[in-house]
Structures are given as C-alpha cells and as structure tokens.
Amino acid sequence: MNANFEPRIVGFLCNWCTYAAADTAGVSRMEQPPNVDIIRVMCSGRVDPVFILKAFAEGADGVIVSGCHPPGDCHYQQGNYKTFRRMPLVEALLAQYGIEKERFHWGWISGAEAPKWAQLVRDFTEQVRALGPLNWKRMFESKED
Amino acid sequence: MPEDTKGTKNGKLKLGLYWAASCGGCEIAIVELREKILDLDAAADILFWPCAMDFKYKDVEAMPDGHIDVCLFNGAIRTSENEHVAHLLRQKSKVLVAFGSCAHLGGIPGLGNLFDRQSIFERAYLEAPSVDNPEGILPQTSCQLPEGEVTIPYFYNTVKSLAQVEDVDYFIPGCPPQAPQIWAVVEAILSGNLPPKGSVVGANEKTVCDECEHKREEKRIKKFYRPHEIIPDHERCLFDQGIICAGPATRGGCGALCPSVDMPCRGCYGPPPNVIDQGAALLSAVASVVDADTEEEAARIVGEIVDPVGTFYRFGLPASLLHRSKLEEGS
C-alpha cells in the first residue's frame, strides 16, 4: 500500500554547507528522489523549532535539518553549536508527540559531500515512505472528537 | 461596547459566568476581588453563575439571543456538555470572554492531549492504585436503569480551547487571572472602553521577565534543576541558576508573582504577542543557554529535562501548533 505513497519531506539546509552539497548533487545529476522540498536558511542555527513543528502540523511526512560540521566548519563560527544544543530537545519533544523518530533527521553535510546528500535523500525518503503518511491534520477533521 | 448593551430595566450590566473543564480556581479569582465584588454587584446583575448560585441550563435557554451583556467563560472544552454550553452562551451573549488559561489555551486539562479517551479511562477507572472496580466498568454515555435511560456527556479524545469551538471576543489569560487585572477589565467593560475584538486583555504586551526583579547575567547552564532539587538564590535570575523558567516565553501581566517567591514562571499567561508557539519559544530559550561544546555534552544536558512537552506547554498544548500527541487512525 505504501508503494504508491509519495512522502513530502521538508529540508532546512544551511546556505554554506548542505545547500551547496544539494546544489552540487543536482548539478552533477546524482540520482535522488524528488520528495524533499528544500528551504535554504542562512544557518542551521537559524532553524527555529517552530519551523519543524509547523512543517509537521501542515502536512509534512518528514523533516531534515542539515548544516556545517562542528566544530569549525560553520560560516558563523558557532551557529551549528546552536543546532546541536537545540535538536536533541526537538527530538525529545517529537517523541512525546508520538511522531516516529525516523521522520526527523538532523546532522551535518559539508559543501564537498554531495554524494552524502544524495544518499541521505534516497535513504530518508524510503525510511519515511515505509512509515506511511503522517497526515497530522486528519486528527482535527472530525468535529466530534 | 455599544450603548444598547446596558439595556436592562435598572441599567445594570448583565453578566454571566460559567465553568467548563476547569478546577474552580477561576471562580475563586472572582471572589478574590474581595470587597470590590460588592461594587461588581452594584454595577452588574449576575444572570448565570452555576458555581455560586442556583441556575439551570433551561434558564439560559429561555433567554432571548444576546441577552447576556458579558459572559466570562472559564475552563477548557473536554466533553460534549462543555461544547454545548459554549455554543449556548455564545448565542445568548453579546460579548464572550475566554477567562483563564483553560478557556484561553486549553490549560492544565489540555495536557490530557498527550493521551486519548481510552488510555485516560483505563488509567482513571482501572489502573490507578486507589481504584476498586472489579467488573472493569468504564463510563458509558447512555445506561438503561429501571427508571429509564440515564445519559452523561461524551468525553472527547482531544481537549480544545474555547476559541477552537466558538467565536471569542476577548481573552483574559492566567491560571487564574489576577484580581487587579480582572477588575481592570470589568472597569473597561463598564466604561465601554474595550479594545478590538480578539484582543488579549488584562495582561501586558511584554514578557514576564520584563516585570521580574531577579538580576540577569549571562546564562551558561551545565545542569538543569527542577524546583525541588535546588534552593535558589533570591537575587539572581532563576534561569541563570539552571531552573527552567517560562518567563522569557510568557506574556506578562501577573506581576511576576511566581519568580518573586523564587518559583519559576510556569507560563500560564500564554505566549507573548507575535509568538506562534509558546513551547517552541521556551525550548529555544532553554537550548540557547546550554553550555556545551560537543554534541555528546549537549545531548546529556538537555536529555536530563524530564517531560519536555509538559514543561514547555504546561498551559497551552491544545492551542499550540501540534495541539496533541498522535492519535492512531480509528481511535
């Protein structure tokens, strides 16, 4: 049944590393499914938890946050430190909400790691596809409950 | 408010008060007006107040539409009865006010949104250590007795705020709203000097930190403490000391009551203006003070926070972005 399901995944990528990798992956015609909607942010440390929650609330089946490798790769010195301090808490929050941990990925991909990005897109898309649709809004469609 | 809203024979304001899913603290908050309650009585006729006076729903149903000038509605929407009365009072009131955290954002009952009807019933009626229920009876909406059919309201899976089921004119936040703020709102109503519809009244436009007298320094936290694990310094910011305080993510207006006695803010006044999701804002504030230079250390420090949803969304889960935990289809 899940074979026909095309997951919608939102990817927040930092301008300086992972976005560059995704760009290179595309220009180099690396094979990857078209399921990730990429949103370029200036830094993974800019990704407010609200972005992630709103993506899920409005219909995303999975979310990726990816930036520059710590320590040292960050264009803004320590922006990625903000990311690794914040994301474990987001993970814990999503777990309490009952959102499977396989639907959320955060990590680091440098501008030189285009194949790693393409691999992540392939793997993550299949991982989310296997879980099926999240469809958060359905829980509020019935007027009764 | 337009002039014709005070069209009673004696010229008094017609007031209604109701409690839905709430603890009764909001009713106490009204009584906390103390001697001013006599002024309230002089200015207003109370047409409906089930907690304090003997009224029936049929008394409200018999009123013409828009008969009540102002209805202060406290409590969340937990059952079909709560929702029914919300619709009824909307119909019968010119101004409907969501009064207190539960009506405003879902409040403490809203934490039930981490569970569903089935698991709440099982816990409350089967598993709790003090329960004696050998036949495993769970509440039914309808039951046949020799005298006839007995019905009780339907218990929803999801707690909602008042604005999620009805059109609300104003919001008075707080668990409970503070008496001086309530009185300020009553005075505004009496003078007809009300802000635009949908406003949060009886509160400030800044955060609790703005009213708090603790001294702030740079925050660098190696370990978070729960309130019972530490005796805080009375002068320094509680957050600086590692106690998770919702002050930075909470609307002011209470006078920073909790921090003034060294208890961290719990967030009952809801998000400040322009904040979409109070819990996400508090989560960001918490993560930003973590003093960790490696991923492992950061994960360890924030991993010690017990119950993140309950901590960050203590009073506002139903009104937050995700509203509740995931429900399996068909449950």
Structure description:
The complex is a heterodimer of chains A (145) and B (331). Chain A has a single domain (2-131), classed as Rossmann fold (3-Layer(aba) Sandwich), CATH 3.40.50.960. Chain A is built from four helices and four strands. Chain A has helices spanning 18-27, 49-57, 79-97, 114-131; strands at 9-14, 36-41, 62-67, 104-108. Chain A has a four-stranded parallel β-sheet with strand order 2-1-3-4, with helices on both faces. In chain A, β3, α3 and β4 form a beta-alpha-beta unit. Chain B has three domains: 3-109 and 158-191, NADH:ubiquinone oxidoreductase-like, 20kDa subunit (Rossmann fold), CATH 3.40.50; 118-156, no CATH class; 208-312, no CATH class. In chain B, 27% of the residues lie in helices and 14% in strands. Chain B has helices spanning 25-31, 36-43, 57-61, 80-92, 101-105, 117-127, 179-191, 257-260, 278-288, 295-303, 308-312, and strands spanning 13-19, 44-48, 68-74, 77-79, 93-99, 142-145, 148-151, 155-160, 170-172. Chain B has a five-stranded parallel β-sheet with strand order 2-1-3-5-9, with helices on both faces. In chain B, β6 (142-145) and β7 form a beta hairpin. The chains are: A alpha/beta (145), B alpha/beta (331). The interface between A and B is medium-sized, with 30 and 37 residues.
Please give the number of β-strands of chain B: 9
Largest interface (CB < 8 Å): A-B, 30 and 37 residues
Residues in helices of chain A, as a percent range: 25-40%
Distance from first to last alpha carbon of chain A = 27 Å
Q: Spans of chain B of 5+ residues with little confidence (pLDDT < 50)?
A: 1-7
The CATH H-level homologous superfamily of the largest domain in chain B? NADH:ubiquinone oxidoreductase-like, 20kDa subunit
As laid out across the biggest beta sheet of chain B, the strand order is: 2-1-3-5-9
Q: In terms of per-residue confidence, which ranges of chain A show pLDDT below 50 for 5 or more consecutive residues?
A: none
What is the approximate shape of chain B? globular
The CATH architecture name of the largest domain in chain B reads 3-Layer(aba) Sandwich
CATH class of chain A: Alpha Beta
How is the CATH topology of chain A named?
Rossmann fold
The total number of structural domains of chain A is 1
Shape estimate of chain A: globular
Number of helices of chain B: 11
